[in-house]
Amino acid sequence: MNKEEGKTVAESKTVFTQLIMPNDTNPLGNLMGGNLMRWMDIAGGICAGRHTNNNVVTVSVDNVSFKEAIKVGDVITINANVTRAFNTSIEVFLEVFTTSLSSNIPKKSNNAYFTFVALDEKTLKPTKVKPVVPLTEDEVKRYEGALRRRDLRLILAGKMDPKDAKDLRQFFRDLD
Ligand SMILES: CC(C)(COP(=O)(O)OP(=O)(O)OC[C@H]1O[C@@H](n2cnc3c(N)ncnc32)[C@H](O)[C@@H]1OP(=O)(O)O)[C@@H](O)C(=O)NCCC(=O)NCCS
């Protein structure tokens, strides 16, 4: 695919930074998971919106696990990058990094895939999105894995018959 047909990942890359304040935390002084997910949703939505040039809505959030507590006074940075566009939906990869007052070396806290659907401005119905043009090795890897992740989430949502999940089935066959 060439650049004229779609948009590169860099064109919509979004970086979201936030200082963790006392009202973001639980009684232990750790960031509440729900607040982090909200910021990830905002960063992902901005990124998907920049790619599609449409309003977007979140249609699905893949597994989000919290490896380490994020403390009040820490600074988090969320990097959001599109991985692949399908027809009207687009997958965004989010990575969260934390720095503390004592160390400016970012530690990765978690990552997740969110899927957004672009809506037509007038009808508010799902509308076609431009393809993603992956350029770097990591971008190509995430682009290639996106079909399998899509198959899996549509099966789990009861929107796809496992028999139709060609990419996922091929992936498991290749592992044999
Ligand atoms: C998102 C929404 C517009 C989709 O409407 P729909 O009638 O299901 O439309 P479709 O079945 O045509 O699906 C649209 C796209 O979403 C994808 N999709 C639907 N359910 C999905 C799921 N659970 N996971 C991943 N993708 C999903 C479809 O695969 C399709 O993508 P594609 O066109 O790239 O193939 C509708 O479900 C909605 O408005 N949901 C609420 C969104 C919202 O308010 N989010 C904020 C959270 S409160």
Number of domains: 1
Q: Which molecules are bound besides the chains?
A: coenzyme A
Helix content: 25-40%
At the fourth level of CATH, the homologous superfamily is: Hotdog Thioesterase
Q: Which percent band covers the strand fraction?
A: 25-35%
| Low-pLDDT ranges | none
The tally of helices reads 3
Shape: globular
What does this structure look like?
The chain is of the alpha+beta class. It has one domain: Roll (Thiol Ester Dehydrase, Chain A), CATH 3.10.129. The protein is built from 3 helices and 7 strands, in the order ββαβββββαα. The protein has helices at 33-52, 137-156, 166-175; strands spanning 7-8, 14-19, 55-61, 75-85, 89-100, 103-119, 132-133. A 5-stranded antiparallel β-sheet has the order 2-4-5-6-3. β5 and β6 form a beta hairpin. α2 (137-156) crosses α3 (166-175). It is globular and about 50 Å long. The model has no long low-confidence stretch (mean pLDDT 93). Bound molecules: coenzyme A (COA). Coenzyme A (COA) binds next to β3, β6 and α2. Residues 57-60, 86-89, 115, 117, 126, 153-154, 157, 159 line the site of coenzyme A (COA).
Features:
176 residues, alpha+beta, five-stranded antiparallel beta sheet, two-stranded parallel sheet, 3 helices, 7 strands, 28% helix, 32% strand, binds coenzyme A
